[in-house]
């Protein structure tokens, strides 16, 4: 089975170590076993999980790597740890917290962190608006809420120089239009997910500086600075 995962990674331009591939396979096995009892995801078939969950989340790794090599990341409404667990495995420089309002889902991510020996993966059982923690450099979500609700619920958890990274299917033009005036979409990034015949994209957002209009030629207009950032 690891050969299939290796092919998915290769198609995405990723070169994970054998240990990282093994960790992802172990995670997939844990997800299947826990799902039989705790209903972590509606996807039951192991091969469908590999494509719809692992490949889908692996597709965000290259864009996140281009934004920064390290930092603090919050995965909101993480469910079974998607994409947080995948990010923690592939990008050990990122300290990842997965938050979910459902206790059994947070418990699962905590179990994964122990089973895979991931010191950079943490689980929090809370509603994100009630979460008490230091702010994050990137706040992400996958099938969590509309962009406006996502921003409203997580605004206080983002550093001033941070960015929201929302995983979406088709480009949500209506949701983008409904964002508050002080939040700007600075990049819409199409994603190609191996084996998945559906549209996927990342919506990158940041707080808009009041009274400052940055031209496209301004390097700062390409997005916020994140500590450890690397050039695309």
What's the topology here?
Elements: H1 2-11, H2 18-38, H3 46-58, H4 61-67, E1 71-76, H5 84-90, E2 94-100, H6 103-115, E3 121-125, E4 136-142, H7 147-154, E5 158-168, H8 173-177, E6 183-191, E7 200-207
Question: Which tags fit this structure?
Answer:
seven-stranded mixed β-sheet; single chain; 8 helices; Rossmann fold; globular; alpha/beta; disordered C terminus; 36% helix; 232 residues
Q: Output the CATH homologous superfamily.
A: Vaccinia Virus protein VP39
Shape by Cα distribution: globular
- What is the total number of structural domains? 1
Strand content: 15-25%
Count of alpha and pi helical runs = 8
CATH-defined topology:
Rossmann fold
Q: How would you spell out the order of helices and strands?
A: HHHHEHEHEEHEHEE
Helical amount = 25-40%
Tell me the total number of β-strands: 7
Please identify the structural class as seen in this structure: alpha/beta
Please mark out the parts with pLDDT under 50 across 5 or more consecutive residues, or reply none: 210-232
Please describe what this structure looks like:
- With 232 residues, the chain is of the alpha/beta class.
- It has one domain: Vaccinia Virus protein VP39 (Rossmann fold).
- It is built from eight helices and seven strands, in the order H-H-H-H-E-H-E-H-E-E-H-E-H-E-E.
- Strands 3-2-1-4-5-7-6 form a seven-stranded mixed sheet, sandwiched between helices.
- The protein starts with a helix and ends in a 25-residue tail after the last strand.
- Mean pLDDT is 88; it is low at 210-232.
């Amino acid at each position: 089975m690891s050969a299939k995962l290796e092919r998915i990674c290769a198609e995405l331009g990723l070169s994970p170590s054998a240990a990282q591939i093994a960790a992802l396979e172990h995670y997939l096995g844990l997800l299947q076993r826990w799902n039989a009892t705790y209903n972590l995801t509606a996807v039951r078939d192991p091969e469908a999980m590999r494509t719809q969950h692992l490949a889908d989340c692996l597709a965000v790794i290259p864009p996140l790597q281009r934004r920064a090599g390290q930092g603090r990341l919050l995965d909101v409404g993480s469910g079974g740890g998607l994409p947080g667990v995948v990010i923690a495995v592939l990008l050990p420089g990122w300290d990842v917290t997965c938050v979910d309002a459902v206790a059994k889902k947070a418990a699962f991510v905590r179990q994964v962190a122990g089973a895979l020996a991931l010191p950079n993966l943490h689980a929090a059982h809370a509603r994100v608006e009630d979460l008490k923690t230091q702010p994050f450099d990137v706040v992400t979500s996958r099938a969590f809420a509309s962009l406006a609700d996502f921003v409203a619920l997580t605004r206080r958890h983002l550093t001033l120089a941070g960015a929201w990274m929302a995983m979406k299917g088709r480009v949500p033009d209506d949701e983008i239009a409904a964002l508050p005036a002080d939040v700007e979409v600075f990049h819409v990034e199409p994603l190609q997910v191996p084996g998945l015949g559906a549209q996927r994209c990342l919506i990158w957002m940041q707080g808009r500086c009041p009274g400052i209009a940055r031209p496209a030629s301004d390097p700062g207009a390409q997005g916020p600075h994140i500590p450890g950032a690397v050039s695309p």
